[in-house]
Write a structure and sequence with these properties.
Layout: E1 3-5, E2 8-11, E3 14-18, H1 33-48, E4 53-59, E5 72-82, H2 83-89, H3 92-99, E6 110-121, H4 130-144, E7 152-158, H5 161-169, E8 173-174, H6 177-192, E9 200-206
Parallel strand pairs: 6-7
Antiparallel strand pairs: 1-2, 2-3, 3-4, 4-5, 5-6, 7-9, 8-9
C-alpha cells in the first residue's frame, strides 16, 4: 500500500510531493521549450495567483525537500466535466453512458475533476517508466486523499506520438469517436510531415477504475468500455 500524507505520496521507490515556493526549480529540461518555460519562469506566478499547484517526482531518499533535483514535475488545477460540452464533442448517448455510474435520479450535469495542467520528465529520465509512475501516483493521491470530491482526472493532451503513448498506456480516454478520429488523422499528418503544429485534445480518466497494483481489476466493475477507446495521449495545459 502507498504511504500518503496530505501533500506527499510514496510508492514503489518514488515520492510525489508538493513543491513550496523556495523549492521551485531554476533549471529543468524535458525537451519541450514551452514546458521548460512554465516550470522555470511561470511556476511562481501560477502558484501565487492560486491557478496551479506543482508536485515533484523523485526517488525516495533523494527528494526535492532534501535538496535534490526533481526527476519530473506535474502541475494540477481544478476542472469539471460538463454535460453540455461532452454532448457537443460526442453525443447525448455518450453522456448517458458516461454518467450512468450514478443511480437514476441522482445524476448531475457536471462532474468534479482535477486537471493535469502540465507534465514534464527530465530528458535523462525519459522512456524509463517515469511518466507512468507519476500518473499512477497522481491517481493514488487524489483517490486516497480525496478531500472535496474528485471523480475524474483530465488533461488537454498533446497530439504527439510520445505523449500519446504515455496516456494510452495509462488508460485515459477520449470524449467520443469524433475526437479519436481527429487524433488519428493528426498523428498520420505528423508521421508524413517533418513540421506540424502541435495541437491538444481533451482526455479523461475515471478514478473509480484505480487501485494500486489492481488497475482494471477491482475498479473495472464501474467502467463501461463502450464509452470510448484510448488512442491518444499527451501532456496538457489549461
Amino acid at each position: 500500500m502507498p504511504r500518503n500524507d496530505r501533500n506527499r505520496i510514496e510508492y514503489e521507490g518514488w515520492v510525489l510531493e508538493q513543491l513550496t515556493p523556495v523549492e521551485f526549480p531554476r533549471r529543468f529540461d524535458c525537451g519541450n521549450p514551452d514546458l521548460n518555460e512554465f516550470f522555470t519562469e511561470d511556476l511562481a506566478q501560477h502558484d501565487h495567483t492560486l491557478l496551479t499547484k506543482t508536485y515533484a517526482l523523485t526517488p525516495i531518499g533523494a527528494t526535492v525537500s532534501e535538496g535534490c533535483d526533481p526527476v519530473a514535475l506535474i502541475a494540477y488545477c481544478n476542472d469539471a466535466i460538463y454535460q453540455e460540452v461532452v454532448e457537443k464533442r460526442a453525443s447525448k448517448s455518450f453522456w448517458k453512458r458516461f454518467s450512468r455510474a450514478l443511480p437514476r435520479g441522482k445524476r448531475y450535469d457536471v462532474f468534479p475533476a482535477v486537471k493535469i495542467a502540465r507534465l514534464g520528465v527530465q530528458v535523462d529520465y525519459q522512456a524509463q517508466g517515469v511518466g507512468t509512475a507519476m500518473i499512477n501516483l497522481t491517481k493514488g493521491l487524489f483517490l486516497t486523499n480525496n478531500r472535496t470530491g474528485c471523480r475524474f482526472l483530465t488533461v488537454d493532451a498533446y497530439v504527439t506520438p510520445q505523449a500519446i503513448g504515455l496516456y494510452k498506456k495509462n488508460d485515459f480516454q477520449f470524449f467520443g469517436t469524433n475526437d479519436q478520429g481527429y487524433c488519428e488523422a493528426k498523428l498520420e499528418e505528423i508521421s508524413l510531415a517533418q513540421s506540424v503544429k502541435v495541437e491538444t485534445i481533451p482526455m479523461y480518466y475515471d478514478l473509480l477504475r484505480f487501485s494500486f497494483g489492481e488497475d482494471r481489476v477491482s475498479s473495472d466493475r464501474n467502467h463501461d468500455p463502450s464509452i470510448g477507446s484510448v488512442v491518444c495521449s499527451g501532456d496538457g495545459s489549461p
